[in-house]
Amino acid sequence: MTPAHKKLFIPGPVEIAPEILAAMARPMIGHRMKEYAVIHGRIKTGLKKLLFTEGRVFLSTSSAFGIMEGAIRNLVGKRCANFCNGAFSDKWHDVTIRCGKEADPFKVEWGQPVTPELVDKALATGRYDAITLIHNETSTGVMSPLPEICEVLRRYPEVVSIIDTVSSMSAVRIPLDELGIDCCIFGVQKAFALPPGLAVFTASEKALARAATVDGRGYYFDFLEFAASDDKDNTPSTPCISQIYALDLQLERFFAEGLEKRWERHRIMAEYVRGWVRGHGYALFPEERYCSQTLTCAANKAGTDLAALKKMLGERGYAFDDGYGKIKGKTFRIAHMGDMQLADLVDFTAEIEDCLQKI
Ligand SMILES: *Cc1c(COP(=O)(O)O)cnc(C)c1O
Question: Residue 192: which residues within 8 A CB-CB, separation 6 or more?
Fold first, then answer.
């Protein structure tokens, strides 16, 4: 018999705390009522603290892809350099092209990071006025060296940086202003441990100035509309208020845990899972120093029948991920993000070990 709920160990969506789900069941308010602006303002203050920014922070009722498309429409003027080292970053390039923008993909082998050298080489051509980069490639479990890349970006002030932190934001320290990131984007169903459907993004003054010069920004994701609404602690169109209640509470929970402690918890969980992977006949898919802090992508060196393992774990009430895109079956991924605790992973890996003896 299939269990009613499979506990999620996949890299998004992730498990949601019961109190968060309860917060979403609260009665509705109107988004043009004062009550909404109070919540929106409080969330903005919390997000600014979490993102280490004094700049604009916006809430978008969409998944991350919505605002990815929005960022391209608003911020790419001349030509965009897309750095591709996995399935999600490949999609960024696709999004850029489909928005009718000029762009080039800079491809890196899956499992490898985007390096500062590659970014420098691309931008030195002088052809680009925007870049897209994924901090944490969720398909391969690679975290690219963002501070070093941002050092390079400083030398190219004409370039607007669009950085996807969908699966890393809040799990590691990403100080936006210090790094000089123009537009940071993330959805909330991964590292934030909220139900899907809400995305957060930032826009620097440089980004907004660029948007003002770009035609075809569209309507729903027009950054200038977001900025005008932001002045009133509001959104251009009706937001997902239930999820915004949840975000409000989740930020409170983040600060109650403490950011340092939160980063440390993720570090400990990541180390545990990496150790388990190495100790059970598998290998880390990325080079260790580029391994993600929020999920581990393991190379299936032991030749395990991952589909069978996934099925057996599913019957026991655990959702297991047997790889993404072209590395499905050759790799598997274990998420360690959101509200997850080390004990959850100890339990999960013990369950995997038990299954492995039976398949
Ligand atoms: C999940 C993910 C996305 C896409 O998010 P959606 O919520 O499905 O739109 C984009 N980038 C990264 C790095 C992701 O992990």
Answer: 169, 170, 186, 247, 250, 338
Instruction: Find out whether the beta carbon of 87 lies less than 6 Å from any atom of ligand 1.
Output: no
Query: Which among 68, 88, 134 is the best mutation to test ligand 1's pocket, defined by most ligand atoms within 8 Å of the CB?
Result: 88
Write down the domain spans for the chain: 7-14+259-356, 18-255
- Furthest-apart CA pair in the chain: how many Å? 61
3-state secondary structure of 337: coil
CATH class of segment(s) 18-255: alpha beta
Distances in Å between the Cα of 160 and the Cα atoms of 18, 139, 164 are 39, 25, 13
What is the number of the ligand 1 atom nearest to the C-alpha of 139?
A: 15
pLDDT digit string, tens, across residues 157-169: 999 999 999 999 9
Q: What's the fold here for domain 7-14+259-356?
A: Aspartate Aminotransferase, domain 1 (3.90.1150)
- Please work out whether the CB of residue 242 comes within 6 Å of at least one atom of ligand 1: no
* Confidence tier at 3 by pLDDT (50, 70, 90): confident
The pLDDT tens digits for 235-265 are 999 999 999 999 999 999 999 999 999 999 9
Mean pLDDT confidence for 100-115: 98
Global pTM reads 0.97
Structure tokens at 108: 């890196």
Q: Give the integer Cα–Cα distance in Å for 204 and 196.
A: 25
Task: Compute φ and ψ for 57, nearest 5 degrees.
Answer: -130, 125
Given a cut of 80, is residue 1 above it in pLDDT? Answer: no
